[in-house]
Amino acid sequence: MKFTGEIVVGASREAVFEKLQDIHFFASCIEGVRDLKLRDDKCFDAVLETKVAYMTFKFKVAVELMEVTPPEVIAAKIEGAPMGLVGRLTAISSTRLVDAGDGATKIQYEIDTALTGKLGSIGQPVLKAKAKEMEKQFAKNLGAAFAGSTQGAA
To answer: Long-range contacts of range 48-53, CB-CB < 8 Å, 24 or more positions apart?
Structure first.
């Protein structure tokens, strides 16, 4: 499954890039992330807990930053497994920061995700709906971090 969108925040590219580079800040914008542990400056582990349909899932995830080009590109590889279930989550995330004028920044993102096992059998429509819900919450949390920001998901 591929997800794309954009979020506009009322801050410069440099300020947004700096915030997104802060792993603790970034994780705080994603609902359900806990137990964040840095392995080094490019890798970290965390637990993501989320409810999909009527089931609650916990994933142990490992994130590796694959490309960091200040102040415009952050790309990461995410791999994980649901706790207590057989399956696998893999994703490649690419984020591009574009000057949107008037001191604002457009965050364009693309996430290519693959799920196997029980979670993968739930069905793409249910998973896409959950991803959109998480995207809206992330945009809200990120927008709140920048005073006077505007936000939207495409």
So the answer is: 48/80, 50/130, 50/134, 52/119, 52/122, 52/126, 52/127, 52/130, 53/122, 53/126
